[in-house]
Specification:
The structure is a homodimer of 363-residue chains. Chain A is an alpha+beta fold and 363 residues long. Chain A is built from eleven helices and ten strands. Chain A has two domains: 103 residues, Hypothetical Oxidoreductase Yiak, Chain: A, domain 1; 187 residues, Ribosomal Protein S8, Chain: A, domain 1, CATH 3.30.1370.
């Protein structure tokens, strides 16, 4: 159930940032975390939006995130670096890693930066969009705690390790792929379970490793990798680059943000940034991207298909709408944020969109 | 139907190489093309093996591949390069691009090399295995001619653009993912059609864009990307890096190897190579990979599952077997190669494994 209130994304971001500052985070860093969350809400990726404020705060309070940590470069070369996040917020560590990768890309053509000792870093799209502001291409990965079985396995072993790719276009919105490596978001199974609906075959297995269409059983079991063995392989390779290569956790050594209160998550990320100009003139590239997209959009469509879409296009449209019309939150999230506000002496109501009142005729 | 003859992979490679030399290819380059094909047969990826000899030769004869081309670096930076393949064999161009990427990785940590004006380059695994000999990690991509529709489309627009990832391990075989971005290889649908069997829902659409389980209808339609919209996005991003960024063809501008005799293919490839030592000591990395793999192999398994496998593991085992016991070819391929041999004054029989005869007792 959603609230009927509409929140200004800018004010919501200020609200979250102020909360994080009051919880002990430096202003500049609190801004990054808040921007990363609110941007997800703007783009319609509500699962990664301000809904995470409460858990982030709880992990700070329980000393599972260290907002005073020193994020430092442990190893560096012309085009590579390894960053130790010191268990800071994922978004803050990620932002630093991205900036370093971008700097390197501008010099040598490529920046490849691995990160260890980090936390949930929000959406990959957040970083891809930052790099797109400077016309840089990116491939961004992160590992995550266990949710999917290996092919042949019966219980969670790898995370739904996300992959994001950002590529600038000319007249069109950027190509922005940001996907988990599971068939479907676990959230969709939760919704089906709440509604008492069944789920399609192939989404999940039950706790005994058997295929199930029962949403309740699926939640006790595991969500499956996309495309079977192929998704298992993709998810593993993301885990290898983000975790095994960086010194972060991998497989069972990445700890669950919601369930593990003994150990930091030790999430790992991997940022690849490249300078398009080092391959081809950026303007020519953008023209070629526009041709590619106009070609694909011009393809004959199936019945009931209004338009062929490009990765990131829906999210970009939702973002424009929500910037203008405001963000609507689930009641549960609104209540949580209201309580958090109360605790820190802030009113969530201050983040509402201003009502535009027209003068009535004759009054 | 397969022949009962067993071929020595080394002799089969010599046979193919000699054929290419006689068709006008330089010895060193013919060796690369032959090695790439035979390695695919060794690893059980027969679709990319010596079955391609005939079409490669035909394209040389029809001047659709230029074996005398100058492959040159068009643009270069510390960590990047753009190579113009001059329409040489894909494997020869790919080999040059890989070597350049490896050289750069050893210096700056990363090599990222794009390729245009190339042809079918065999399997991505071939290049990944070359880099693995030097303990380098790789991400390798290529685009291909149109076989899959975009989400919402009804006819082929993008290729089943392959992605390969190679990562060294210690005690275990390397992690070697090499996959097309389709749900399933088109070859499996061909086999089902030949047997008059139906195919599972979700593999393909018919020529009107409707889901079909009829293999014949599927062959007139399109094979689908893995994981629906996600596979469509992955395949597009491979097309963007391999084609749009490099100046090669992309989408409909990559020409079909079997059907287009007017224009060269203009395939594009993209090689990313990285030096693990620049992030973490290679021995420590290998130990971590071994732990990762032993963890996943130790997971509880589903009923009827003997073993949890790692990407590339089956292929590596088949390769060991075929090196020892020989390669068996489909009758059609054996006949084709025999004819090719006759044309160039070579006998395919010279590539058979030697029969090991034991002395009979008392004789």
């Amino acid at each position: 159930m959603t609230s009927s209130n509409k929140y200004s994304y800018k004010k919501l971001q200020d609200f979250c940032s102020t909360v994080f500052v009051k919880a002990g985070v430096m202003k500049e860093q609190a801004d990054i975390v808040a921007a990363s969350l609110v941007q997800a809400d703007l783009r319609g990726v509500d699962s990664h939006g301000v809904v995470r404020t409460a858990i982030y705060l709880k992990r700070v309070e329980q000393k599972m995130i260290n907002p005073a940590a020193d994020i430092h470069i442990e190893k560096e070369n012309e085009s590579t670096a390894l960053i130790d996040g010191g268990n800071h917020f994922g978004a803050v560590v990620g932002d630093k890693a991205l900036k370093l990768a971008m700097e390197k890309a501008k010099t040598t053509g490529v920046g490849m930066v691995g990160v260890k000792n980090s936390n949930h870093f929000g959406t990959g799209a957040y970083y891809a969009l930052e790099a797109l502001k400077q016309d840089l291409g990116t491939i961004i990965m992160s590992n995550a705690s266990q949710t999917m079985p290996p092919t042949g396995g019966v219980r969670p072993f790898i995370g739904t390790n996300p992959l994001a790719v950002g590529i600038p276009c000319g007249a069109y919105q950027p190509f922005l792929l940001d996907m988990a490596t599971s068939v479907v978001a676990r959230g969709k199974i939760i919704v089906a379970a709440q509604k008492g609906e069944s789920i399609p075959q192939g989404w999940a297995i039950d706790k005994n490793g058997k295929p199930t269409t029962n949403a309740e059983e699926a939640l006790e079991g595991s969500v499956l990798p996309l495309g079977g063995t192929k998704g298992y392989g993709i998810s593993m390779f993301i885990d290898i680059l983000s975790g095994v290569l960086t010194g972060a956790g991998f497989g069972k050594y990445v700890h669950n943000m919601y369930e593990d209160w003994e150990k930091p998550q030790n999430v790992g990320h991997f940022f690849i940034t490249f300078d398009i100009n080092k391959f081809i003139d950026i303007q020519e590239f953008k023209n070629r991207m526009d041709l590619y997209i106009s070609d694909v959009k011009g393809e004959p469509r199936g019945e009931d298909v209004d338009e062929i879409l490009i990765p990131g296009e829906i999210e970009s449209r939702i973002s424009e709408q929500r910037k203008k019309n405001g963000i609507i939150l689930p009641l549960k999230v609104e209540n949580e944020l209201t309580e958090i506000g109360l605790k820190y002496g802030l009113s969530l109501k201050d983040a509402l969109m201003k009502k535009v009142c027209k003068e009535s005729e004759g009054v």
